[in-house]
Sequence to fold (645 residues):
Amino acid sequence: MATTVIPAQPISRPTNYLTNGFTLKSWLLTTDHKRIAILYLISVTLFFFLGGFFAMLIRLELLTPQGDLMHADSYNKVFTAHGMIMVFFFLIPVVPAILGNFLVPLMIGAKDLAFPRINLLSWYLYIVAGGIMIHVLLNGGVDTGWTLYSPFSTQFSNTNVIEAGIAIFIVGFSSIFTGLNFIVTVHRMRAPGLTWSRLPLFIWAQYATSLIMILGTPVIAITTVMLAVERLFHLGIFDPKLGGDPLLFQHLFWFYSHPAVYIMILPSMGVISELITCFSHKRVFGYKIVALSSIAIAVIGFLVWAHHMFVTGISLYAALIFSFITFFVGVPSAIKVFNWTATLYRGSISFATPMLYAFGFIGLFTIGGLTGLFLASLGVDVHVTDTYFVVSHFHYVMVGGVVMGYLGGMHFWWPKISGRMYPEGWAKLSALFVFVGFNLTFFPQFVLGYVGMPRRYWQYPPEFQVLNVLSTAGASVLAVGYLLPMVYFAWSLRYGPIAGPNPWNAAGLEWKTASPPPTFNFDETPVVTWEAYNYDEIEPKLEDGGIR
Amino acid sequence: MSEHEHVTSRAFSIALGIGLLVLTAITVKAAFINLGAFNPVVALLIATVKATLVVLFFMHVKGASEKLTSVVVISGFFFLAILLSLSLADYLTRSWR
Fold:
């Protein structure tokens, strides 16, 4: 039988940033901010699970009072690896480099960031630094703790201190380039009509974060250089025998590393502002004060660093000053929490997964922030310094805050990033696992610290075991909560319902373009004639679309 | 920018670069001369001159018309002042020194 061969017709589909090239080269040499965000998403996620692996080793070791899983030296290396990876390769880049890279141009109506090639360079620097860090881990690791305190790091440690310092130095420049890009982009590339008072609060948060990245990161870079110089050439910088000052390292280190906490939390606060206002379907309460509180946190955050040093021998006068200012930095953070809560009042609230994460953030960050005030009090700080109370406090801020904000943001903007909806039921279950697992992991640590369990020890007295077992059990639940989104996000790429441009009926320019967005974001440059979060002009969406 | 200005600017940059290297050599030389209490003063003075030259010319702050440039420069020095002054709040008031 004769058959007619019909030539295959190319399927015409609109080009978006995901379909604009399928080769490896098209990804590795891309200057599209959205593709670079995806590159960061993949690499930062890998480092998150690597850091998480070390966290699980810590929790397994602490399951029993004896040091029966590893030696003390190995334990030192494990918690150092956990800290360095999570701080420098996950928490600092996670929201700015993934969500910020993806959203900043979209939210301000721009085609890309101001310096697209510098943006790609920042990712390559991240990868180079990450490669060096993995090399360090494979060659025996480093045992100084992520804080690299001298004189241990400069005189006594026999591990790969300088290599780790080089990794931190390089990844710092990745961070500086991202911050530089955001600042210039926000100043120069806003759509017509998008005044500063109409900017989304996520943009304000990214802007404030970028200020800290640019002003603070060079200090940690030069500090690691000084550390290397003293270690290699025995120049007297930190060693008092050579004319140095033993506390200078800590002053310089925390001048960056305390503001770095705000590099981590501020972008997540920006995410939460977007989530609360969208899922309350109401303009955020006190827009200007929430925006300015981000800048206030960025500035005041630079004035509090020595609260990490109250027991090191700094002068009482300095300690009093730093204690006072630390209480002061709580004010803009509290403004945000109160204003988010006030936004809920008489809002049309829906409980989609991103909103669950936002609620989780508010509760956990409040606990983390308030326990920070405990630590700002000189007397209490002396009692709990270097105990699990401190460990729990900063995990409530960094995991309860930053990671909850990041996951909330990922669920909120996943339809924009991928063009597909994730499965809501699984996502809610995952949010529940994360919330319960987190609290089960870290709340017992407040108690452990208060009753005297020091941090960074691989053995402990038997009376601490019950709380440690609870903590390890919680970590297991938390791990499930973190793994689930990996599975259902991947699943949704193929099987998730098509999202449409604005599945949440949200305000904001990013929702006015296609999902996924075209390569240059908008077919025509948008002209903004409305105030931010004009939810009174947008109809709330009901459950028939699967949203509300 | 005209060809002439371009050449002048390049020649100026090279001269400035050489000047910075000379100042570096002076710093090294001065380190071997015992000036007593003036050791750090001289070193910091030379470093300040070098930093000023870099900021003004290599970073194009001189002649910049943008207000944002001024804001960035002032912010940088403001945060440096914070680092120094609050660190000195510790160093100058230690009871155990």
In short: The CA atoms of residues 387 and 452 of chain A lie 6 Å apart. The radius of gyration of chain A is 24 Å. The mean pLDDT of chain A is 94.
